[in-house]
Specification:
By secondary structure, the protein is mainly beta. It contains one helix and 16 strands. It has a 16-stranded parallel beta sheet that branches. It is elongated and about 65 Å long. InterPro entries: 5peptide_repeat (IPR001646), Pentapeptide-BTB/POZ_domain (IPR051082).
Length: 220
């Protein structure tokens, strides 16, 4: 039998135009930001729900408790962003690179991610419940207790990542490549891995979890 070929992930090709420094005082709900560079700005507690960022660069910005519900990021690069409790519920990210982020408790439930790369950094308690991910790549990052509950993942891959205490409960996976994960620690939802590909070594590591799922006792 011929081995099924793993589909090629479509990666973002972000080519930013010359950018103008952002000179505003802060974010605004439903704000329209085009061709701007946000560098070293503190948006703690600010409200930018429904805002649109197109051809933008956010570099070393603080997003503690920032409200970006239903915000849209298109053809943009987010580098070194940091924050706790950032709300991106229902947001849309298309053709976006997220580099060296340091985030905790970021809310992305119900969000849509398409052609997104998350490279480097560490994200704790990432909430992607009921989100839709398509052509998304995680590279060399640490995801601590990420929640993919009831999410849809299609053509998603992990390279050099640490996936710690991940929750796939109720998730739907299609062409998800977990073989490159440096750490694959599944807390819940191992029965939802249909549609994913893992390596032989990962299968051995996950054997106790699979056995527990089907009620098999392993004794010497």
């Amino acid at each position: 039998m011929a081995r099924k070929k793993t589909p090629v992930i479509r990666r973002p090709e972000v080519r930013l135009p010359p950018l103008s420094p952002y000179s505003g005082r802060g974010l605004e709900p439903d704000g329209d930001y085009d061709g701007l560079e946000f560098r070293g700005l503190d948006f703690t507690g600010q409200a930018g729900s429904g805002a649109r960022f197109m051809d933008c660069a956010l570099t070393e910005c603080s997003l503690d408790e920032t409200d970006l519900v239903r915000a849209r990021f298109i053809d943009s690069v987010l580098t070194g962003i940091k924050g706790v409790g950032t709300s991106l519920a229902g947001a849309s990210l298309r053709d976006v690179e997220v580099v060296d982020a340091r985030l905790g408790g970021v809310q992305l439930h119900g969000a849509v991610l398409e052609r997104v790369v998350v490279r480097g950094g560490k994200i704790d308690y990432l909430n992607l419940r009921e989100a839709r991910l398509k052509d998304v790549t995680f590279e060399n990052c640490v995801l601590s207790e990420p929640d993919f509950g009831s999410a849809q993942l299609e053509r998603v891959e992990f390279h050099g990542c640490e996936l710690r205490q991940v929750d796939f409960s109720g998730a739907r996976l299609k062409d998800v490549d977990l073989r490159g994960a440096a750490v694959l620690d599944i807390a819940r939802g191992v029965e939802r891995l249909s549609g994913a590909v893992i390596s032989p070594d990962q299968l051995l590591d996950l054997a106790p979890v699979f056995a527990a799922q089907i009620g098999v006792r392993v004794e010497a």
